[in-house]
Amino acid sequence: MADYDVQYDKDKGDWSAKREGASQAAGRYGTQAEAHDAAVGFATRSGGGEVRDHRKDNNQIRNTDTVGKKDPYPPKG
């Protein structure tokens, strides 16, 4: 299982899908949606994990998706 972060790189002007703890991004993309879809694919192929989307302006986590495993915090209702 692997967790991935989708973050904006101000220096390069693109979005990256980066495995948690990795020194380099697994891929670089023109939009956040493309980076998110790629991160979901990476997490799925590694047996599941969390995909965390970060905000462009302040890099705070704005959304978390559980992929390929049971969600530990499912929404109520």
Q: Report the biggest beta sheet as strand number plus sense, adding barrel if it closes.
A: 5 strands, mixed
Task: Kindly report the spatial arrangement of strands forming the biggest sheet.
Answer: 3-2-1-4-5
Helix-strand topology string? EEEHEE
Q: Estimate percent helicity.
A: 10-25%
Strand percentage: 35-45%
Brief write-up:
The chain is of the alpha+beta class. It has one helix spanning 32-45; strands at residues 4-9, 14-19, 27-29, 49-54, 61-67.
Describe how the helices and strands are arranged.
Elements: E1 4-9, E2 14-19, E3 27-29, H1 32-45, E4 49-54, E5 61-67
Parallel strand pairs: 1-4
Antiparallel strand pairs: 1-2, 2-3, 4-5
Defining key terms:
77 residues, alpha+beta, 18% helix
Question: Would you give an account of this structure?
Answer:
The protein contains one helix and five strands. By secondary structure, it is of the alpha+beta class. The chain has one domain. It has a five-stranded mixed β-sheet with strand order 3-2-1-4-5, covered by helices on one side. Strand 1 and strand 2 form a beta hairpin. It is globular and about 40 Å long.
